[in-house]
From TrEMBL:
<keyword id="KW-0460">Magnesium</keyword>
<comment type="similarity">
    <text>Belongs to the DHPS family.</text>
</comment>
<keyword id="KW-0479">Metal-binding</keyword>
<dbReference type="InterPro" id="IPR011005">
    <property type="entry name" value="Dihydropteroate_synth-like_sf"/>
</dbReference>
<dbReference type="GO" id="GO:0046654">
    <property type="term" value="P:tetrahydrofolate biosynthetic process"/>
</dbReference>
<keyword id="KW-0808">Transferase</keyword>
<keyword id="KW-0289">Folate biosynthesis</keyword>
<comment type="pathway">
    <text>Cofactor biosynthesis; tetrahydrofolate biosynthesis; 7,8-dihydrofolate from 2-amino-4-hydroxy-6-hydroxymethyl-7,8-dihydropteridine diphosphate and 4-aminobenzoate: step 1/2.</text>
</comment>
<dbReference type="GO" id="GO:0005829">
    <property type="term" value="C:cytosol"/>
</dbReference>
<dbReference type="InterPro" id="IPR006390">
    <property type="entry name" value="DHP_synth_dom"/>
</dbReference>
<dbReference type="InterPro" id="IPR000489">
    <property type="entry name" value="Pterin-binding_dom"/>
</dbReference>
<dbReference type="InterPro" id="IPR045031">
    <property type="entry name" value="DHP_synth-like"/>
</dbReference>
<dbReference type="GO" id="GO:0046872">
    <property type="term" value="F:metal ion binding"/>
</dbReference>
<dbReference type="GO" id="GO:0004156">
    <property type="term" value="F:dihydropteroate synthase activity"/>
</dbReference>
<feature type="domain" description="Pterin-binding">
    <location>
        <begin position="8"/>
        <end position="255"/>
    </location>
</feature>
<comment type="function">
    <text>Catalyzes the condensation of para-aminobenzoate (pABA) with 6-hydroxymethyl-7,8-dihydropterin diphosphate (DHPt-PP) to form 7,8-dihydropteroate (H2Pte), the immediate precursor of folate derivatives.</text>
</comment>
<dbReference type="Pfam" id="PF00809">
    <property type="entry name" value="Pterin_bind"/>
</dbReference>
Length: 263
């Protein structure tokens, strides 16, 4: 599905939620959601990541039934109407199984297979890539933050392998904005290259996040340039996929960075 190391892949964000921090409610209707996905494909997205539960700080959890109600009509259309991989952003194994049955290609788990212990088995059963993200409740770290992130990810990798997930299907995400203060997020950004020591592809998701907002003092939709800066920094430190709202702009930045830094 991917040839990591040759270029940066662009994952376009499609939120079918009423309460996402940046574009909540904009793509709630199935037709609107599908058209936005197609627009991102036209702009050069390599993957579409569909989320039906907001993971912004303070967001309310939704039930499996509600999440599936939002996802299923959109996924059914997307698997027929677009020809790039579809990822679903969920930490619930039942939701993952239902969308994989429909033909979804990737699972993006913001709790790194550690919230729902059945998730690794589902991913292994369908033999699909899984994005394992670092997350925690609160922002206290008992030791160095990057060592803590690596320890968490190592445990997730252990769970994945134990369940039968293939090495080639594991992708890591440092979880910018999750269980971290803005200052901690900036430290993780500075030290992203340390994650390459684990030997797996890395996804970076910084798009329009509060770290950028705090630096620029701007609302989410005016954080495009700030996001691009983090995209470039990520690629320079070994990131393989960037998860973004603004596909066209980040793709252009990634192409230039790839041309200079990837040999």
């Amino acid at each position: 599905m991917f040839e990591f190391g040759k270029r940066t892949y662009i994952m376009g964000i499609l939120n079918v939620t009423p309460d996402s921090f940046s574009d909540g409610g904009e793509y709630l209707g199935v037709d609107k959601a599908v058209e936005h996905a197609k627009e991102m494909v036209r702009e050069g997205a390599d993957i579409i990541d569909v989320g039906a539960e907001s993971t912004r700080p303070g967001a309310k959890e939704v039930s499996e039934e509600e999440e599936l109600k939002r996802l299923i009509p959109v996924i059914k259309r997307l698997v027929k109407e677009i020809d790039i991989p579809i990822s679903v952003d969920t930490y619930k194994s039942r939701v993952a199984e239902e969308v994989l049955k429909l033909g979804c290609h990737i699972i993006n788990d913001v709790w790194g297979l550690q919230r729902d212990k059945n998730m690794a088995k589902v991913v292994a059963k369908y033999d699909v890539p899984v994005i394992i993200m670092h997350n925690q409740i609160g922002t206290e770290y008992k030791k160095d933050i990057m060592e803590s992130i690596k320890d968490f990810l190592k445990e997730s990798i252990r769970l994945a392998k134990e369940a039968g997930v293939k090495e080639k299907n594991i992708i890591l995400d440092p979880g910018i904005g999750f269980g971290k203060t803005p200052k901690q997020n900036m430290e993780v950004m500075r030290r992203l290259s340390e994650l390459t020591e684990l030997g797996y592809p890395i996804l970076l998701g910084t798009s329009r996040k509060s770290m950028i907002g705090k630096i620029l003092d701007l609302p989410p939709k005016e954080r495009v340039e700030g996001t691009i800066a983090t995209t470039v920094m990520g690629i320079m430190q070994g990131v393989d996929i960037v998860r973004v709202h603004d596909v066209k702009e980040n793709l252009r930045a990634a192409k230039v960075t790839d041309a200079i830094f990837r040999k």
